[in-house]
């Protein structure tokens, strides 16, 4: 289930965002051992506050599967999802979340709150955090250090 190579693919997506001047977060969605969606942040390019990597990957995966229900899917994302993205993962019925760096400012999969395990929702995700954490964290730190 956990595959470090998939996180490396998510990191490649994050690098695309980095070179576009976007906050470098990347995501891929895997279904039946196959990448069915890949995305990176595009908030600045689209001037859309919802254009997070996770949301864009969910949309692409739903189109691929021709269903909003992503049961059986795993998302790999370089940063712990924010509340919006964690909620979208619950709504999409994604089975598993694998993320790289923990987010002390907006993390909603265990750091500040845990939307992915909220018992009153009708779906919870299996969550693995800190996968390839140093690589994911260093890309984000490099981005913000250059902005300061």
TrEMBL record:
Record keywords: Hydrolase, Metal-binding, tRNA processing, Zinc
Key word Phosphoprotein present: no
Domain named CMP/dCMP-type deaminase: residues: 1-112
InterPro entries: APOBEC/CMP_deaminase_Zn-bd (IPR016192), CMP_dCMP_dom (IPR002125), Cytidine_deaminase-like (IPR016193), MafB19-deam (IPR058535), tRNA_aden_deaminase (IPR028883)
Binding sites annotated in the UniProt record for Zn(2+): 52, 82, 85
EC identifiers of the protein: 3.5.4.33
GO molecular function, one term: tRNA-specific adenosine-34 deaminase activity
One Pfam family from the record: MafB19-deam
Cofactor dependency: Zn(2+)
Active site (record annotation): 54
Subunit structure, as described in the record: Homodimer.
Family to which the UniProt record says this protein belongs: Belongs to the cytidine and deoxycytidylate deaminase family. ADAT2 subfamily.
UniProt protein name: tRNA-specific adenosine deaminase
Source organism of the structure: Dehalobacterium formicoaceticum
Gene: tadA
